[in-house]
Amino acid sequence: MTTTEQIWITPQAHSRLRDELNELRTRLDRPSSTEIGSRAEDGGIERSAVQARIRRIHDLLRHAVVGETPPDDGVAEPGMVLTIRYDDTGDIETFLLAVRDAEDGATEVYSTHSPLGTAILGASPGQQCTYAVPSGATVRVTLLNAVPYGRHESAHERSPSQLTGSGR
User: Fold this and answer.
1) Boundaries of domain holding 44
2) CA 112 – CA 40 distance, rounded (Å)
3) Residues 115-164: tens digit of each pLDDT
4) Which of 80, 96, 100, 155 has the greatest number of C-beta atoms within 10 Å?
């Protein structure tokens, strides 16, 4: 599956994906029976799975917007670190809205195509959004804060009560 939309990823994720792509291409160029087998029973990764991963990474990199800082306007969009409250439980979660395959490991990542990502995309602080989970239940969340990736460390240090009072 390929995409034509622009995909926001961190510079670290871009570098990691480039490295992974190079490693996978090297494996295909010089396969060993323990690295890439023709069958899953060989104990290796199937050649077709490696080729599919290469295509996925190539597609991500071709459409990548690397570390471009979105406007600091509080609107939930790719490249923003979002803090939300699950309204039914009061739990608070902070995550990066970006492409899931390119996570950098330091911050949880939700895709704009995930149920939560789709629901919260375009929201402003204080706005409540809903989405359905596989069980059919509806989850209500409120966007508390949205800051560009890289600027989120100082925003994350604020308490949730400061975030809810931002009123932006």
Assistant:
1) 7-66
2) 33
3) 999 999 999 999 999 999 999 999 999 999 999 987 655 544 444 444 44
4) 80
Question: How far apart are the C-alpha atoms of 70 and 148, rounded to whole Å?
Answer: 6
Residue 78 burial (CB < 10 Å; 0-12/13-18/19+)?
A: buried
Residues 60-102 have pLDDT tens digits of 899 888 878 889 999 999 999 999 999 999 999 999 998 876 5
Residues 89 and 136 in one domain: yes
Answer yes or no: do 96 and 130 share one domain. Answer: yes
Other Cβ atoms less than 10 A from the Cβ of 148: the count is 18
Shared-domain flag, residues 93 and 144: yes
**Same domain membership, residue 92 and residue 57:** no
Q: Are residues 48 and 93 in the same domain?
A: no
β-bridge pairing 92-97 and 109-110: parallel
